[in-house]
Amino acid sequence: MKTTRPSARWRSRTLALAGAILLGASLLTANAASAQNDPREGLEPGYFDAGVAASGIEVLANLPRSGPFDANPGNFGFVNSDLAFTGDHAIVGNFNGFQIYDVSDPAAPQLRTQVVCPGGQGDVSVYGDLLFMSVEETRGRIDCGTQGASGAVNPERFRGVRIFDISDLDNPVQIGGVQTCKGSHTHTLVTDPDDPANIYVYNSGTSSIRPAAELADCNNGGATTENPTHWRIDVIKVPLADPASAAIVSQPRIFADPVTGAVNGLQNGPTQPTHPSGGAYSPSPNTTTCHDITAYPEIGLAAGACQGNGILLDISDPANPVRLDAVADVNYSYWHSATFNNDGTKVVFTDEWGGGTSARCRVTDAPEWGADALFDIVDTPDGKKLEFRSYYKIPAAQTTQENCVAHNGSIVPVPGRDIMVQAWYQGGVSVIDFTDTANPVEIAYLDRGPIDFPNPTGLNLGGYWSTYWYNGNVLGSEIARGFDTLAFTPTAMLSANEIAAAAEVRMDEFNAQLQSKIVNQPSFAVTRSFVDQAERDGSLAGKALTEVRKHVDQAEKLAAGPANSRAVQAQLDNAARKSGLPADSAVVQAIKALAAALS
Q1: CA angle 415, 417, 423 (to 5 degrees)
Q2: Strand 89-94 and strand 97-102: pairing?
Q3: What letter does residue 522 receive in the DSSP assignment?
Q4: Which site among 67, 505, 570, 588 is 20 to 30 Å from 304 CA-CA?
């Protein structure tokens, strides 16, 4: 780890810009904090030997790309992309196919399977024994061949969503796929609580439109032509009894003007011709598709990051999503992805300014560009709406050799807090507490120095595409360096009890774009987490704090031995009483829930 120059320029620039931000002077709370002497700045460059700076999180293991997935950094044909999880396995998408890793021991992950099936960008999702993969490039073939598909029209070409049977993880088998007019850049699985026989896939295509001679009904015409391919998403229905028969069942016009019906009804927000940085918005002037959609079926909502807009959707009828609200921001170049908090009352949107391949965390880059935008979901007389609260961007400036911008992340199920772990490409990993959406705070980070191979002085594409929490650890897809397993380490901002409480949550599978309600069951780790939080916020201190911890510790010892439940209850009752906190406080409620669970 190497610490070098203080970042006074970054600090002074952040403060100077605070008054000029469109949505208020309070927006840069997180970034206004000084990054002076941040050890992430000035790290030694390298490929697998770059300098590392970390706080509150550490790398357990790194498995470099290998065999048919290995290439020099910058070769887009072999870039690692998004992640999905099933059981003890992580599935890493890649522009050349996908790889399956055994993560049953996070400190010693093992590569299990490699499936070569080119077509980019290879984003993956899992549902039971099914794996879905996005394909958008013209080289994609129905048979997964590596020879490509030449010509403007080719009957062997595949662009859309592939479906694999992964019941045998050593031998995945492609069993079908759905061709789409713009291919598939990303996709989202959507379940229907009232329809367990089917799942749905929301497909987002951002590439060129295929000629109708290759795929019927594709139309590259303008907004007034009949059924144009732009300005819609694809909804694919997948019968679980026969997934090979999956097909598009609707193509909702979620960008339409509700008054005029014009399909291109969502403008790319700003009326000015260029982004404040001087570059162009993408696209301009209309939003034509979503880059990514995150669904939360249990609350009937989805959040779409859709080029020029962030949108909120009603997905109570998954085949026919309806737009509830749309927001835009002059500072946002390209709305990229979205993450709900666990309660479904907040959304973190990201802006992929520069497309992920450019240096966009430089000391000269405004902290509201290429950042997160945090919104609350509020109830109004006109329905649910998105209400802006603040921005967040990593506070440490990166070099011109490092592609860096806000990218993919997921929530970490620490009880009582909204925490997100997030990838920033070569900006590394940043973990934020956004419980107060107006004041997000970084609580952990990990960063490597710039990749210096094969170009020792230029920008070599790399960094984390995705970092997600799964069953007690953070797993990362590194574009160039391979696959990482990481673990939280206790700090003043995240206690050992909070880390342990989150690790008690176990999932059978996980897709970041399909969120579900996470419940922290009553436990001693959960109870101690709330005690730690009360100490952190000052509501529990001194003798009261000592007494609470003493009685909770004694209750755990008794619960592990032959003592009857009344003795355990007595200790927990004493802990609640001696805390001096109100009956409705998080600490007392956690103690009572634990007592009930042990009775």
Answers
A1: 110
A2: antiparallel
A3: -
A4: 505
